[in-house]
Structure formats: C-alpha cells, structure tokens
Design goal:
heterodimer; A: 347 residues; alpha/beta; 4-stranded antiparallel beta sheet; globular; B: mainly alpha; 15 helices; 76% helix
C-alpha cells in the first residue's frame, strides 16, 4: 500500500514554547508535532491550561515575552515560518493563516468601526483602494450573515451583540481567503443557540472556500460535528491523535475517555453531579517524572510504570490511519475496546 | 443628536456649578470675622463713619439683596472696587490673571507633552532603564513640594550655573513688555516681531513652568503608563497582529488611542487647575500672577476681588470640562453612540 503524498497545509514538528516566569520555566508546548491536510478540519481539544492557545499563537509567531518559541518547525505551505522574521511573518499572518480569536467581547478595538477593522486586514494584504476594501467588507459581513450589513459597517463593536462580534471575527479571519484558519474556542463565550449559528456560518464559509481549519475547543460535541481529525492535548503534549470517528468509537488514552465522559449529554442526564476529571492538570513548571496524567488517571494511578516512565507514542488500529496515543496501556485498551464491540457490546 | 443633548446637559450642570461656587464664595467672605468697612475707614474712625461706609458698600442690606447686586454686577461687567488698591477689580484681575494663565499654559504643555512622550517610550518596548527612570522621577515629582523644587531649581540653574534668569518675574529688568494683544508676553512679543523680548520671556517662564508642571507631569505619566500597559495586554491587539500588522502600527493605531482616553479627562482637569494660578510657585519666582493678589485680598477681606476670582475660576473649570467632554465624545464612540439591542 503506497500512501499518496499528502498535501499538507500545515506541518508542525517538535514545536516547543516556554514561558520564563519568576516561578520558573513553564513548558507550555512540549515538542508538539501535527499535520493538517489542505482543506481538512482538525480539532484540538483539552482542558484549560493544557497549552492549546499557546500552540495556536506559537504557530502564528505571536508569542510575546515572557514566552518564547524555543524549538521546532512550523511548515506552512512548504515554508518553515518558524524561521521567519516578524516582518516576513506579517505577510503570512492574515493572508495564508489567520486567527479567529476566542473572546468576541474583547477581541475588537472598541474605538474603531467594524468596517475599519475588517478593511484593515484587506488593505494590509491586497493592493486595492479604500472603497474597494469597503465593498469587500460589506460582502464579508453579508457572508457571515450580519443583517443589514451595509448599514452596520460603520457601527462600533459595542453596538454589536456577542454572536455578531464573533461573526465579525470570522469575517476578518476569512477576509483574504487564507489556507488555514485557527479558530481558538470561537464559541466558548456564546449561548448554545448562538454557538450553533456561528459554527454553521464558519462551516459553510470554510466549505465554500476549501479552507483548512484548526478548531481549538474543550467541547467534544463541537468536534464531533465539525472535525475530521482530533488532537487531544494534555500538559503541553498531544496525548492522542485519531480520526474523529475512531476517537469517538474508542479512546486509546484514558484522558480522552475522561474528557468524553465529562461532556454533558442531555439525552442521558442522570441524577447527581456531572462527571468530572478529578484533580487538575499538573503545573507545567514542575512536571512529574512519568506520565503527566498519572496522578489523575483511573487506569494507571499509582502504577510504577506510569509514575516513572514517560509514555512513548503507540500506534494502534489501521496502520494506514492509526490512532496514536501516549499511554503505556494504549494497545491493551484498544484491543479491549475492539473486543467489546466485536462481542456485540453495541454502540 | 444625543451628543448635543450631552453637551447641553454639561452646560446646564456647569451653570449650576458656577452658581454654587458664587454662593459659597459670597457666603464665605461674609462669614469670616472682621468688618471690611472698618478696615477701609481705618482704626481711628468713629462708629458713625463705619456705619456710613457700610451703607455705601451696601453691607447694611439683607444678604439676598447683596448677593443679587453682586451677580448683577458680574453680568453687567461691574465687578466692584478693590478697596485695598483703589482700583476696579476688573483692572486688578486683568493685570494679573494673564500672567498666571500664561504660566499655567506652559506648565501644562510641558507636563502633557513630556508625559505622553515618556509614557510611550517607556512602554512601547521593554526598556528597563528608561522605565525605571520615569517611574522614579514621577514618584519624586508627586512627592516634592513645588515651592521647594522651585527654590532648588533657582539655586542651581540661576545662581550656580546661570542658565536661566533669576526670579525677576515675567521679563528681565531691561526688557520692555511687548504691545498687548493676548496679554501673554511670549505670544505678544512674537506677534510684534520682537524676537529678543520673546526669548527673554521664554527664558523667564521656563523655570516656573517646569516647577509648576512637575506634579501634573508625574500624575499624567503614571496614568498614561499604567493605561498603556493595561491596553497592551488587550486581546484586540493579538487580533490586530494576527491580521498581519506590525508591532508599531498596532501600537499606534490601536493601543495608543485606547490608552489615551482616561488621560484626556485627567489632562483637562489639570489644565483648568493650572490656568487658575498657583500661590507658592508664583511667590518663589516673583511671578506677578493672580495667586498673590488673592491671598492678600483674602487676608484683607477684599470681598469683591475674591468673589470675582472664585467665579472666574469656576467658569474656567466648566469651560475646560465642556471642551473635554466634547473631545471625549469625538474620540470614544462608546460615549457618543448608544448601545443597540
């Protein structure tokens, strides 16, 4: 079986980002590698503080002191932009790769009009006049389904609701038809109905344009709906990667399983507290010597191998499209899961 | 629409403040112990002479009537007599207030320009040296009594090094004041084309203006520095950078305008305060401003002067505030435009 050469829009290799704080060096992203194929959508899931946003900003080269990208490569459309100067990166940001920021209430400049903030990114990357940029901005606002787009172009952010502001952020990110959009929790601050609407808009637009998306979220429901592949991030590492279908069928890493269990599902609400993952993520300034999830892990808690040895990535399942998990028990867990479904355990 | 209403509201509020200030100034001067009529006629005058003098000054009338006369006088331009000098109050104030206002204006300009410059330079990039220096200087600036600073400045820059002239007031003893247009010597000299006089006036105003501007500078630089640091952590700057803008355009177009808003209000209040004059700094530099006049007038119970001055400074405050309010609505859309839905 010869795998066709994959057309990668993004290929991140061994990316490392540290924050140099007074409390010590915080290793927020620890040798992370991931690839995104052109036009594909991947989800990056994990708890708060797992390093998701830092990874996103590291890819964009927007880590500010006291943080610093200390190693690795970020190959975007064949160029390693990790080696670029800020001046070179400015031509890439907003053009080839763009960001949909997480908190719509604070992500727009309060004293500039919506139109000016959309036009800013257009004018930065294209040789067109202000009028053309303005027409372009109206179209973009229509695309993200802001009603009365031409009239609302001259409004200010405070005159927009949260959902509408998030649409504006999507319009800004898509303005120059980039190859990759990094959407950092685009719906976290919105109510459920608005979330669904905003995601629909994003989905329609990236499908129309064939844009690849990296969706950062802690909402696995959103991932199930939106993504082809999933990366699960924990303590600065991608502890499990799989196609979305595989991951929802079987979680080779106990952390992924715990994450999935803690999604509230209205169709099977039980009495009592919602399931949670006990404990909290380890301090990235003082990582435990073994598996970072060991202290909270229902499988390996207290086991010597988990306490002392950092798990290496293990590939299980279909060799052409394996599930890769950093867990000493990945193989066992996968076999058991396959056994369960083979013996008719049901879905 | 809503902007005109806001400004109208400001003006009405300002008028009420002015009225309040006039009532307080009026009452205070009456409540203070002592009798101006007696002071005028002298210690040896008879009771009859005093009563007559009181009658002439209207002091025998009820307070309401006195107040009404005072307001009417202010509006018709009759600000009364300063009995200590025998001049009209108007003459006294016109002779003195411009000197204070010129000094205040320069002090404000120095404070404001240097505050903006240093706050921007010390926060735009990580410059520990400059930032530390600015912070120390502003800390000292807030804590140093201006008259003391003025004396030290005179000692060093005038006495020891001779860079600036001594405390001769607005001009050197050999310089003739320029023809009056604005009452500000530096402006009038330039208008008349008397460059020598302009230079002399500038040299004379430099030290007192720096002395007077020190505390406002310290206040503004701290405020703006804090606001800049706060804004530079704002999320919208990350978004702006993710559009492909460089650090500098992002700072200039987005961080600075946002950080500037609170500074604007503070600067307006400081300007009003500075224009109204300062007693101690004027004394140190022999500046013929309004400060000395007011202190003397209070001590001698020269009603008319004090009342008029209080009223004028209230009007000045209100005007500056209205201007600041208008400026604010221009730069901050959140003030100008209502939230929809």
């Amino acid at each position: 079986m010869t795998a066709a050469p994959r057309d990668l829009v993004l290929d991140v290799g061994d990316l490392e980002t540290n924050y140099y704080t007074q409390a010590g060096v915080v290793e927020a992203v620890r040798k992370v590698s991931l690839e995104i194929e052109r036009g594909h959508r991947v989800g990056l899931v994990g708890e708060s503080g797992s390093g998701k946003s830092t990874l996103a900003l590291s890819i964009l080269g927007l880590i500010e002191p006291p943080g610093r990208v200390v190693g690795g490569s970020v190959v975007l459309n064949g160029c390693d932009i990790a080696k670029f100067s800020d001046r070179q990166l400015q031509k890439v940001r907003g053009r080839q790769v763009s960001l949909v920021f997480q908190d719509p209430m604070t992500a727009l400049d309060p004293v500039k009009t919506i139109g000016a903030q959309i036009a800013e990114t257009i004018l930065r990357h294209r040789r067109i006049g202000r009028r053309a940029a303005r027409r372009n901005a109206v179209e973009l606002l229509r695309d993200v389904e802001v009603p009365q787009a031409d009239r609302r172009l001259d409004d200010y952010p405070h005159q927009y609701s949260g959902g509408m502001r998030q649409r504006v952020l999507i319009a800004i990110a898509l303005a120059n038809e980039p190859d990759l959009v990094i959407a950092d929790e685009p719906t976290a601050a919105l109510d459920v109905t608005t979330q669904a609407q905003v995601l629909d808009v994003l989905e329609r637009l990236v499908t129309e344009r064939g844009t690849a998306v990296m969706l950062i979220t802690h909402n696995l429901g959103v991932v199930a709906e939106f993504c082809d592949r999933v990366f699960v991030m924990y303590a600065g590492r991608l502890v499990e990667r799989a196609s979305a279908d595989d991951l929802f069928a079987c979680q080779a890493h106990p952390y992924s399983e715990a994450l999935l269990r803690s999604v509230p599902r209205p169709d099977r609400l039980q009495r009592g507290p919602l399931p949670t993952i006990p404990g909290s993520p380890p301090s990235l300034a003082h990582l435990p010597p073994g598996c970072p999830f060991e202290p909270r892990c229902p499988v390996g808690q207290g086991l010597d191998v988990c306490r002392t040895q950092v798990p290496v990535p293990v590939a299980v399942g279909d060799p052409a499209d394996p599930i890769v998990a950093e867990c000493h028990f990945a193989q066992e867990r996968w076999s058991a899961a396959v056994g369960r479904s083979a013996s008719g355990g049901g879905t | 629409m809503s902007m005109t209403r806001r400004i109208a509201g400001q003006l009405v509020g300002g008028l009420i403040s002015i009225l309040g200030a006039s009532i307080i100034a009026f009452l205070f001067m009456r409540v203070l112990p002592g009798n101006p009529a007696r002071l005028i006629v002298g210690p040896l005058a008879s009771q009859e002479a005093i009563t007559q003098q009181e009658k002439a000054m209207g002091l025998d009338q009820p307070l309401v009537v006195q107040y009404w006369r005072y307001i009417k006088g202010i509006i018709t331009g009759d600000w009364g007599f300063a009995y200590t000098s025998g001049e009209t109050v108007r003459h006294e104030i016109v002779a003195r207030l411009p000197a204070s206002m010129e000094l205040g204006l320069y002090a404000f300009l120095i404070a404001f320009v240097l505050a903006v410059l240093l706050a921007v330079l010390s926060t735009y990039r990580h410059r520990p040296w400059l930032d530390g220096g600015v912070r120390t200087a502003s800390f000292l600036g807030l804590g140093t009594p201006p008259f003391w600073f003025g004396l030290i400045a005179l000692l060093l820059f005038s006495q020891v090094w001779g860079i600036f002239p001594g405390p001769d007031g607005r001009l050197g003893p050999d310089t003739i004041p320029p023809p009056t247009v604005t009452h500000f010597y530096t402006f009038d000299a330039v208008i008349a084309g008397q460059w020598g006089t302009a230079w002399d006036a500038l040299r004379h105003i430099a030290l007192p203006a720096i002395t007077l501007g020190l505390a406002p500078w310290a206040f503004l630089v701290r405020l703006l520095r804090a606001n800049l640091l706060e804004v530079s952590r704002e999320n919208f700057l990350v978004v702006v950078r993710s559009k492909g803008l460089g650090r500098r355009p992002a700072f200039q177009k987005h961080a600075l305008p946002n950080a500037f808003l609170p500074t604007l209000t503070a600067a307006g209040l400081l300007l009003a305060q500075l224009l109204a004059g300062s007693v101690l700094v004027e004394k140190v530099f022999n500046w013929p401003g309004v400060g000395g006049l007011i202190v003397d007038s209070i001590l001698r119970q020269d009603f008319a002067v004090v009342q008029t001055f209080v009223l004028l400074s209230a009007i000045l405050y209100v005007c500056v505030n209205v201007v600041v309010e208008i400026l604010y609505s221009v730069v901050d859309p959140r003030v100008r435009l209502p939230v929809m839905k």
